[in-house]
Amino acid sequence: MAGVTDPGVSASAPPAPTTLGELRDSGAAFRPVKAEIRANLLARLGAGEPSLPGIVGFDDTVVPEVERALIAGHDLVLLGERGQGKTRLIRTLVGLLDEWTPVLAGSEINEHPLHPISVWAHRQIAAHGDATPVGWLHRSDRFGEKLATPDTSVGDLIGDVDPIKVAEGRTLGDPETVHYGLVPRTNRGIFSVNELPDLAERIQVALLNVLEERDIQIRGYRVRLPLDLLLVASANPEDYTNRGRIITPLKDRFGAEVRTHYPIELADEIRLLRQEAHTGWLDTAGQHGNGHLESPLIPDHLVEIIARFTRLVRESTHVDQRSGVSARFAIAGLETAAASAVRRAAVAGEPRPVARVVDLPAVVPASRGKVEFADSGADPDDERELEILEHLLRQATAQTYRARCAGLDLTGLQEHFTGGETVESGELVPAAALLGQLGTIPKLAELLGRLGVPEGEQSAEQAAAAVEFALEGLYLTRRLAKDTDGTRTVYGA
Question: Which parts of the sequence belong to the Sigma-54 factor interaction domain (predicted)?
Fold first, then answer.
């Protein structure tokens, strides 16, 4: 989203104190992570700023639940189908941490100089006193995550005995022989477990103490490390019965369970598409960019068609609703249409790639693998699946045409075909060739304006995209005929 500061990018230099004495003299105080997050969240809310910038479609549903959980100091689990933005939301929480926080220099578990918790830290402070070195940790380094897989071990998450430290002469009873896992190494930060039900049940047990007693146990060591962190997990609700489940004691220890969802409103679906498509080479905002082939323009009506297409696929009775249709389905579709426009511009020598309706059929085969159809026993190569997606794409195009061109006088364009003339288009037919077949197009400026092309910024490529959309709309409303063989499309009376 434009204007959103990436929490991983430093906006300022770290504070000045470099020793424990200087830090204490500066008036610094230890504050637990959840208190830190709560204070920063309340400050944002009080200032009228978005608490989770970049999160689309959750303003009135998911975001308030997450805010309440964070204010209450709860660890939380996000439940929702694939591609609903659970991981994106979790990573956005990093922005609620202080930009910089002091740590004991050399600490493996990010210990606060005023609140040491390990034997090593106490030894350092005893040896150096106020001269103990202090470093500063940026919030981008206070986030850890683990994709739960069946082979994940307790050692990966919590820790294990380090044989190298033992070989160096330490005894097995020395707590410093422990090699810390991902969770303690994210101490004083946010730790995320993605797809938690995929974690073996015996491994989930290792997280019980982290959530309740806030400490860890390693191979029988009497190691008590009062960890200070926010634990967030994500899961698909169906995972409780399919691939695995979250064990009941672990579910009970999460303070909050938040259900996510796909965008409810079409406007949010479109906004999400614009935000998440790879804008480094896509222009979904209608701007001209640098004019290179790497920056194709995706007209507003094309973005809307793909958004509507995604929503229709989600609602289709032919699609397995338990699996869901990820936002990545729409994003990949938009990028595929853009790639088709770039390919045409490269072959035909167009100065600026602009996606057209003729680029949409390429979306269907490219997106097919992202959809789970309800008939699980069907042949995976069944052409019926392609037919279903093609039908839904036509339906989305028709809906967009009615929404954007309602009341628009296209009789002048339609009359071009009364004498038996035809217009040929195709994925490699350049804009100039398409427009040349039509000659002067009545009320073209009105059509372009209705489709969001500002006067003075109209190019031949944008005009061709608008005209082809109008032709397709006339065909879908049974006012024109169309013949297509996959690469060649002919419109006629």
Answer: 178-237
Do 413 and 463 fall into the same domain? Answer: yes
Q: Are residues 362 and 391 in the same domain?
A: yes
Residue 106: which region, alpha, beta or left (left: phi > 0; alpha: psi -120 to 50)? left
pLDDT score, position 221: 62
User: Does 270 lie in the same domain as 242?
Assistant: no
C-alpha closest to that of 114 among 38, 190, 188, 10: 188
In angstroms, rounded to a whole number, what is the distance separating the alpha carbons of residues 182 and 180? 7
Specify whether 48 is located in the same domain as 174.
yes
CATH of the domain at 252: 3.40.50.300
Q: Which pLDDT score, from 0 to 100, does residue 445 have?
A: 86
Closest CA to 100 of 204, 193, 205, 13: 13
Residue 102 confidence (pLDDT):
97
- Can you say whether residue 291 is alpha, beta or left, with left for phi > 0 and alpha for psi between -120 and 50 degrees? left
Tell me, rounded to whole angstroms, the distance of Cα 21 from its chain centroid: 43
pLDDT one-digit tens code per residue, 2-16: 333 455 455 689 898
Task: Judge whether 102 lies within some domain.
Answer: no
Q: Which of 259, 276, 296 is the last residue of a domain?
A: 259
Q: What is the pTM of this model?
A: 0.84
| Of residues 116, 97, 109, the one with CA closest to residue 158 | 109
- In this predicted structure, what is the pLDDT of residue 441? 83
| Ranges in the chain, pLDDT < 70 | 1-11, 163-176, 217-223, 238-243, 278-294, 376-382, 456-457
- What is the secondary structure of 158-225 as a DSSP string? TEEE-HHHHHTT--TT-GGGEEE-HHHHTTTEEEEEETGGGS-HHHHGGGHHHHTT-----TT-----
* Number of residues in the chain: 493
Q: For residue 326, tell me if it sits in a domain.
A: yes
Question: Is residue 71 one of the residues assigned to a domain?
Answer: yes
Segments forming the whole domain that contains residue 194: 31-97+142-259
Which residues have CB under 8 Å from 80's CB, separation 6+? 86, 234, 236, 237, 259, 260, 261
DSSP string, 252-266: HHSSEEEE----SSH
Report the domain count for the chain: 2
Burial of residue 95 (CB within 10 Å: 0-12, 13-18, 19+) is: buried
- pLDDT for res 4: 36
Domain boundary, last residue among 204, 238, 259? 259
Q: Which helix (H) or strand (E) holds 465?
A: helix 460-476
In a domain, 426, yes or no: yes
**CA–CA distance, 308 with 297 (Å, rounded to integer):** 19
